[in-house]
């Protein structure tokens, strides 16, 4: 491994720290009592502005800057919450005759990015900055690579910022250290999942786990990742959906189940798609899609309010309000409203003609359902900014959905569209095993025509349905896209800690 000059210096410092008898990677627990960002909120002062509390605080984190001034120094410590200024005096941290801790370790061997622990008291500097006067200093971890450090020239231009998206996504450990403002995205993501889980628990549903490695790729129309199980000598698939397993649990007698799950689809990548994504799906017995629409409104209103303190979010030039009720529009009415075309009763050839008039690209592998999906996706989705339920899909688009109770050729399904993208997909679940088998057979015909997203027949799921499943409502909600909305992000990579990336090109050899 070829090292840069900076990396060589840091390894030399590492060796010198060991020579001092200090372990540069200690294993002992360091008892932190305060976080940097909390201290300014907790400070109490007297009439002269002197800090009267926080006489003993213990913090740990990275050194992000140093200003050495002989026998004293200022430094910035960054922990998980933010930064705080440290004041370090030689005679405080090295009170005896041996000044090695300050003169050698702190002044010469401590590099930016190193971890230290400090113990001291809080005070205000002459300029009024809340700081920690360090009385004890402990070395906690050596950084062998220098962190990117932005530099500003005389004209105020900034250089060497760690802003390149590909580098940021590839090296999150660096990104979130030098760009800590992005941590709030992931804190909101965590709060969102927590608030949704609380809502579903309060609804009386049980959280469950279902297989990620499955013998059949079912539950959605998508291309799977395929692998091989050596012991069983059978092909296996990473799940594209957990729907069929959750419905098996409804058959088993649970009234309501939910799962926050990772899904995997071997498809394209763009600003709103990642091959691995997170969704929450829940299924409730003795309910239908009308009940699920109302529940979805309540869930999202609760979650957005919990995360952002308001039901409105800013998405580019739009302000989106998640407070219910949401607009409801059938798929046929939505296509008619935004294109002027009527798809009611249109057969496959008529749909191809409509697509051609609308300049929507289609191919011969597409059946009636896929054609309608393409028309809707190209010409309607982008107009649906405020939360809108698109309801009553054609039966060909929904092989797992109960047929509409009063509208021939349609099913009881809705998708929630927000800011031009699908956020949720829900059904009155199909519980007729004979009808379900026929739908699987229709999917098989599409697969034979070349549709690699067609759903496979799951004989075990059909067997489960034959034992009887009550009327059931089910929904899947995409967590990643919802986080994008709540945090104002335009790219899904911004809301994933570790998005999928192309392999990194090897470094060019140096002459």
UniProtKB/TrEMBL annotation:
* Cofactor binding description: Binds 3 Mg(2+) ions per subunit.
- List localization entries: Cytoplasm
**Reaction catalysis annotation:** tRNA(Lys) + L-lysine + ATP = L-lysyl-tRNA(Lys) + AMP + diphosphate
Q: Does the keyword Translocase apply?
A: no
UniProt xrefs under InterPro entries: Aa-tRNA-synt_II, aa-tRNA-synth_II, aa-tRNA-synth_II/BPL/LPL, Lys-tRNA-ligase_II, Lys-tRNA-ligase_II_N, Lys-tRNA-synth_II_C, NA-bd_OB-fold, NA-bd_OB_tRNA
Q: What is its EC number?
A: 6.1.1.6
The record places domain Aminoacyl-transfer RNA synthetases class-II family profile at 186-499
Metal-binding recorded as keyword: yes
Pfam families (UniProt xref):
tRNA-synt_2, tRNA_anti-codon
Q: How does it assemble?
A: Homodimer.
Protein name per UniProt: Lysine--tRNA ligase
Q: Which organism is it from?
A: Neolewinella marina
Question: What lineage is this protein's organism placed in?
Answer: Bacteria, Pseudomonadati, Bacteroidota, Saprospiria, Saprospirales
